[in-house]
């Protein structure tokens, strides 16, 4: 009898299991193919794109936060360097301007700065007085400080401006005003008023003499007259560079504005 291979007359089982495994493996490979980049260039482009996507959000938020801080500094930066609260002529709401009462009330309000108008009498005395205020006191709309003597100015009766009663409603000299306020505020501004009949002649020297006499270390002389400002700077060796810069800077700005207006016309 013929037999199909084997030992001892037994048939060998067909290698079904091996064939099936091989078939399954083949099916698995075909069903889930793995595709790799075709070139290194494509792979690099993918890496660069991913890096760019990862860096964009931090950079965007960095500039957003920077802009936010800049806007905040614009709105709140003045808190680190607050402006000076300056009382023009003292507390001119509750007392007549440039009187000792007005200065006392301003100091009581703890202002940072007091502005004092400076005018010169006919005999050369400096008073804390403005032509406009003198006209209110005298009732004469044409009178000027420069035409009154020191005695006449001291005899002026200043009207009360509030219900409160003050005993120092007199027009002070510049020396008296500076002695009162200079040590109690951060800045004293002397607004020099130029008027007839002497105008700027000798006014700078008189103002600096009063400043030295009262030992005012925080005085800033302000003048709308260019020639008077030059005289003050020329005669004084103690004027701070800041004061020079402020005065001349504002003068230049005024001239630039005038030039722009003329060009428009």
From TrEMBL:
It catalyses: a sn-glycero-3-phosphodiester + H2O = an alcohol + sn-glycerol 3-phosphate + H(+). This is glycerophosphodiester phosphodiesterase. It comes from Hevea brasiliensis (Para rubber tree). The chain crosses the membrane at residues 45-65. InterPro entries: GDPD4 (IPR044236), GP_PDE_dom (IPR030395), PLC-like_Pdiesterase_TIM-brl (IPR017946). Keywords: Glycerol metabolism, Membrane, Transmembrane, Transmembrane helix. PROSITE patterns: GP_PDE. It comes from the Eukaryota. The lineage of its organism: Eukaryota, Viridiplantae, Streptophyta, Embryophyta, Tracheophyta. Its EC number is 3.1.4.46. One of its GO terms (biological process) is lipid metabolic process. GO terms for molecular function: glycerophosphodiester phosphodiesterase activity. The keyword Membrane applies.
């Amino acid at each position: 009898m013929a037999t199909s291979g084997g030992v001892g007359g037994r048939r060998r089982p067909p290698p079904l299991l091996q064939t099936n495994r091989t078939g399954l493996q083949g099916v698995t490979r075909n069903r889930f193919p793995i595709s790799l980049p075709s070139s290194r260039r494509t792979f690099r482009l993918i890496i660069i794109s991913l890096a760019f996507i990862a860096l964009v959000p931090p950079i965007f938020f960095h500039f957003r936060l920077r802009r936010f801080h800049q806007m905040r500094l614009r709105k709140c930066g003045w808190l680190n360097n607050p402006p000076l609260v300056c009382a023009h002529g003292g507390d001119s709401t509750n007392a007549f301007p440039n009187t000792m009462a007005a200065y006392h009330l301003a100091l009581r309000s703890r202002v940072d700065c007091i502005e004092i108008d400076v005018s010169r009498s006919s005999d050369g005395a400096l008073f804390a007085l403005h032509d406009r205020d003198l006209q209110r006191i005298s009732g004469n709309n044409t009178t000027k400080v420069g035409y009154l003597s020191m005695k006449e100015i001291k005899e002026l009766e200043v009207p009360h401006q509030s219900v409160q009663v003050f005993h120092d409603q007199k027009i002070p000299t510049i020396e008296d005003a500076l002695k009162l306020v200079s040590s109690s505020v951060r800045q004293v501004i002397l607004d020099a008023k130029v008027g007839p009949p002497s105008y700027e002649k000798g006014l700078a020297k008189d103002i600096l003499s009063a400043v030295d006499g009262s030992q005012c270390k925080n005085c800033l002389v302000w003048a709308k007259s260019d020639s008077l400002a030059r005289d003050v700077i020329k005669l004084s060796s103690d004027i701070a560079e800041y004061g020079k810069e402020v005065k001349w800077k504002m003068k230049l700005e005024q001239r630039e504005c005038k030039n722009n207006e003329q060009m428009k016309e």
